[in-house]
Amino acid sequence: MPSRRQQRVNARLIQEVSTIIRNLKDESLGFVTVTRSEVSPDMRNAKIFISVYGDEEKQLATLSKLDQATGFIRRELGKVMQMKVTPEIIFRRERYVAEADEMEKLIAEARSTDPNPGERIEEEEDSSDSEYDDGDYEEDEYDDEYDDEEDEDRY
Fold this sequence. Notes:
About 50% of the residues lie in helices and about 15% in strands. The protein contains five helices and three strands; from the N terminus they run H-E-E-H-H-E-H-H. The protein has helices at about 5-25, 55-70, 70-80, 95-115, 145-155; strands spanning about 30-40, 45-55, 90-95. The protein has a three-stranded mixed β-sheet, sandwiched between helices.
């Protein structure tokens, strides 16, 4: 578990790297979201996880451009973050976002192929198939007056 300082630096890295990427004047960058960061305990290395809107090719191209701009981004971070050493940055793609997009596509596909959307199929329960029902049980009738008298005796 990261220390309190690591958590604060991670939060600040996300904020500052997002701002720096937004201000980059490279038209080939896709829509980039910084999702999280993981700074090492010695604060010298940081993994910045990003999500890029678009297909696999667009994501890889954006990641490549960010890798090329790592020096510039690190230098800009050094100007705004008051740290003894500005961490080395490594960009990584966030897999969870891509997996969530794939899941949404599968759900949409399943809904489009469903002939009766919103209709549930319910199985009929046969009471004779119950594991507790042996067929010989008959419900006893109780005398309510008897139960009331018994309760009164207890108190």
